[in-house]
Amino acid sequence: CSLQAGLAVLLKAERLFHSSYHSQAVHIRPVCRESHWFAQLPCEGVIKAACLFLVQDASCLAVSWELRQTLTVVFDFFSSGQGKKDWSLFKMFSRTLTDTCPLASQSKVYVDISPKNKEKELLEVSPPPTSVHEAVVQGEKKTYAVYDLLSPSLFNTSRSLNVQLKWKRPQDSSEMPIPTLHAQRYVGGYGLQTGEICTLIYNTHPYRAFPVILLETVPWYLRLYVHTLTIITKGKENKPS
After folding, report:
1. 3-state DSSP call for residue 238?
2. Nearest-angstrom CA–CA distance, 108 and 100
3. Contact status, residue 165 vs residue 88, Cβ threshold 8 Å
4. Does 174 fall in a domain?
5. CA 167, 172, 174, 178: dihedral to nearest 10 degrees?
6. Residue 172 in domain
7. pLDDT at residue number 51
8. Would you say residue 175 lies in a domain?
9. For residue 26, what pLDDT band results from cuts at 50, 70 and 90?
10. pLDDT in tens, 86-106
11. pTM exceeds 0.70, yes or no
């Protein structure tokens, strides 16, 4: 459908490239399409009920390639909007969703409406979502408002979908939520001799550890010396492989 219908209608170049951050990625991986299956012998439990297990063989007869394209964009309306957290699709992209792509098997918009305070619901989204989805992300329970573009009732009242999120009461600017995993990077020193790049990765979860893949984008004019790389975790130096 290109830019004529579906979610791609929102991808207006001048809005995306003037955002605080944008990243495009292409992910390709092999997926087993056909493999051997064999049955194990039945087993008997305490109540003498027979059970049969199907086990997948390690050998794969046919492999398909999965292509996944992602676009990540960060809009900072809190700084540019005089401390207001309200946003809408039109405010971000200067466009709204008018129709779904007929070739899409699914087309959905998820809005994180997880309340920060368990006792008071501070967020409201409009129009009403087609459904609500709950999931556990990084050990925290999240609630998402789901807008299914394939649902016939979504475009019945209006030919344009402009998802909006509003706060029921003003929020204190000092109470910005901190993600469980977040990072900071800064440059110190000067020149090739004393200049350095420091990247700090924080995990605020009380007990759980998470695997992290760090990808550094370095300008072409900056020369890095890999032998000077040091990794420090909880005050102790880890030798990189």
Report:
1. strand
2. 10
3. yes
4. no
5. -30
6. no
7. 47
8. no
9. very high
10. 888 888 888 888 888 889 898
11. no
